[in-house]
Write a structure and sequence with these properties.
Helices cover 36% and strands 14% of the residues. With 319 residues, the protein is α+β, with helices and mostly antiparallel strands. Helix 3 runs antiparallel to helix 4 and helix 4 runs parallel beside helix 7.
């Protein structure tokens, strides 16, 4: 142990096993009132400096290099964090906007480690072009799409994670089991289009009628094909006084040219919306002009949209 400075700051070289008792036994610290400097942790097994002035000492720099975690370990940590959030979005204390930003940051950090070159924010640009993210200059664009359809339906963390799960899986950062073969996936698609699941389904009944999901995020059940096509069943969970918690199938999403072409509400989901099955069409020309001029929209400020009559559900004749 080496003492330095007028006030007696300490530069310690700590090696396992280390504890304050060893310092006392060696006579470096008094027997009573043993108190280590504030920045000292007795649990670490490498050199740790309490004196910032000695941080550039060659010996300490060598120790840091020897004990720094490898990029492989950092990648493993980030990958675990990404998969953990995608699988259990409600377990993290993120609001919807922070959730979207966090997911994109983790994916981009992993791309950086893997030397995947990225310019700008390609995930957000792809989602905006697909119609499931707007306006383009906010961090909670996916949730805005669902809130625009169902403004009083609560939060949409599961729907958000299912969207980003598709992006993560495409790059190779999400391990999905039970990939469906083309025949089984096409059969499921035909059943959906026929309206079989358009009313009267909850999570339990749905699982009885369908195979084991490829991926589950929160309350959304996802089925993935070998061609990376996705079908998502969005479950809505509610609490009713006197009845407790109950759930129902609110909407179904599938891979299509645009979000609107691959989205339908069930009868129960239709009752939750005030704007019909299709969200108002975004007035893209006006929006882009305002955005280029530096316009930023507040949370409760309406976007420039073209209000159209809500299109009828393709399953409405079955209700």
């Amino acid at each position: 142990m080496q003492k330095s400075g007028a006030k007696g700051s300490w530069a310690l070289s700590l090696h396992p096993p280390f504890c304050a008792r060893e310092l006392v036994n060696n006579g470096d610290l008094p027997q009573k009132g043993v108190r280590l400097p504030r920045r000292i942790s007795t649990r670490i097994g490498f050199s740790f400096l309490a004196d910032a002035d000695s941080a550039n000492h060659p010996q300490h720099q060598t120790h840091r290099r020897n004990f720094m975690r490898s990029s492989k370990k950092i990648r493993e940590l980030l990958l675990n964090r990404l998969n953990g959030i995608l699988k259990q979005p409600e377990m993290d204390a993120f609001c919807e906007s922070d959730l979207e930003l966090r997911l994109r940051e983790l994916i981009y950090d992993l791309c950086y480690i893997d030397r995947i070159e990225i310019e700008g924010d390609p995930i957000r640009e792809e989602l905006f072009a697909y119609g499931i993210y707007y306006p383009a200059n906010v961090i909670d664009g996916v949730s805005n799409v669902f809130k625009n359809i169902m403004p009083k339906a609560g939060k949409f963390k599961s729907e958000i994670c299912s969207v980003y799960a598709g992006k993560a899986h495409k790059i190779g950062y999400l391990d999905i089991k039970n990939i469906l073969n083309p025949n089984l996936f096409n059969e499921m698609t035909e059943r959906i289009m026929s309206g079989e699941f358009s009313k009267g389904y909850n999570k339990e009944k749905l699982l009885q009628k369908l195979p084991v999901p490829s991926f589950v995020t929160g309350t959304t059940l996802c089925y993935v094909s070998e061609e990376d096509a996705w079908i998502c069943f969005d479950i809505s969970r509610h609490y009713t006084k006197g009845k407790g918690y109950h759930n129902h199938l609110r909407s179904i999403r599938w891979t299509a040219e645009t979000f609107e072409e691959g989205f339908e509400l069930t009868k129960e989901g239709y009752e939750e919306t005030e704007r019909g099955v299709a969200c108002p069409k975004l007035d893209e020309n006006t929006f882009m002009e305002l955005w280029k001029d530096g316009k930023k929209w507040a949370v409760d400020e309406p976007l420039p949209v073209i209000y159209e009559e809500p299109r009828k559900s393709q399953w409405q004749h079955l209700w």
